[in-house]
Amino acid sequence: MASPQDVAALRQQLGLDKPIYVQYFIYMSNLFTFNLGVSARTRSPVLTEVLSRFPYTLSLALGGTILAVILGIPLGVFAASRKNTFFDTLISSFSIAGISMPIYWLGLILIMIFAVSLHILPAGGTGSPANYILPTVTIALYLMAFVVKITKASVIDTMEKNYVITARSKGLSERVVLYKHILRNALIPVITIVGLQFGALLGGAVIVENVFAWPGLGRLIVDSIESRDYPMVQGSIFIFALFYALVNLAVDVIYTVVDPRVNLK
Amino acid sequence: MISTIKEVLRYKMVLVCVLLLSAFIAMGLFANFIAPYNPLATNLSQSCQPPSLSHPFGTDELGRDILSRVIYGARLTLSIAFAATAVGAAVGIIGGVFSGFYGGAVDMVIQRLTDVLLALPGFLLAIMFIAIMGNNLTTVIVSVALAMIPSFIRMARGLTLQVKELEYVSAAKQLGVRNMKVMTRHIIPNISPTLIAQVTLNLGTAILFISGLGFLGIGIPPPQPEWGTMLGTGSAYIFYAPHIIIFPGLAVFLVVFSFNRIGDRIGEVIAVK
After folding, report:
1. Which pTM does this prediction carry?
2. Interface ipTM
3. What is the pLDDT of residues A98-137, one digit of tens each?
4. I need a labelling partner for B17 at 20 to 30 A (CA). Which of A21, A48, A217, B65 fits?
5. Hey, CA dihedral for B6, B78, B153, A244, is it positive or negative?
6. How many CB pairs under 8 A join A and B?
């Protein structure tokens, strides 16, 4: 047992003897210089640890998003152009199943197929490029379900617009109509959804990192909660929130590129 | 009302989802009559048994019957999801309607509070709340409710702004009906169809959140048979007893899928009207 003197000394050292509002002020003023405090468990600076973990989360989130967009948009357009056919039903059912699929279960099933049964991919950890495949695909499949659903709905909606009918009736080729008139307009809601879902994707990344023993921020948060390392939890959540805000800003900027009608001023 | 329900159920898939959900709810309600074993009774000599006649879903790492745990899990997971959605929807709808109806300072304060909740993605908000408050039944319910409040506030506010300009609302105001009564009698009933679709979709999300927290080991603590918690502890045995993770995950998937499909369909029917 720690003696009362030791407890008092530690409280003073950690600044816990000061009133809450003073502690809050100290934390906030430190935040402006990116001083996130020290880990309660290892005594090392939180920022160093968080920054060493962040690239792992970033690569997973970016890789998953890129894969989801590259595969999801063509699938959505394909389903829309073959509306009410077998392919449309197949793609749409896949999409709604993907939205309802718990992401940890998806990850575990992929491990079961590719690591346990087929022995062709590692079940977790890092080290080789092969380690990236399963976690990235898990994230991508999850996001792709949303991308397909929104792309399809948006393309179908745009197809009925007057300017598309005009473009067709003045004899433009189907290719030009699809790329110049339909896709460019239909992509705007898709960007919104990818941006909005990016938050859900960060939540999903926390889970995926724990499924695949991936040393990112999400795993750091869960480990730190278990060891009651509050400065580390606070620091990781802060970096997540910062990243989330930056992505939302990026989405707003991308709008102006895709849709010249949107003006940020 | 009845014609709307008929319209919602027109598709076979939606009907199947309703039946499936009813089956899960019945399973939860009558768990103590249906479950063949005690969901908490361990039997180490029977651990990690694959599915068999005496244990149709097999047994887990402590020899507990997985079928019984999935059945009791329906009770636990569904009741937490209903509780969390009820709290989240109630707070969000009241906040959103107030915000839209009164405007001005009330609107400002409520919207800035919503911005605070929106600073973090929902699931991370729930994780943060659990990190501070610890994990037990109450904190799991509150954390999941907290995560869904912003979307309800935004939606209820937007709908209120539309409805409040309609003639019957102005008429009620001109006649001197008190604000409270205008909101409860004229506004909320007229925005409720859209909110019902939102509630249904949120029930699915709530289950994903609850089981996600459970999977991470920060949800409903073991030995309670929560589906996500079962998957989290079972995932360690994936190499030699993969059956442990099949059935709880399938249960989560089927229930979430049903809520999503029904919610989408309600949304479609309302949009046509």
Report:
1. 0.89
2. 0.84
3. 888 999 899 899 888 888 888 888 777 777 777 888 899 9
4. B65
5. negative
6. 111
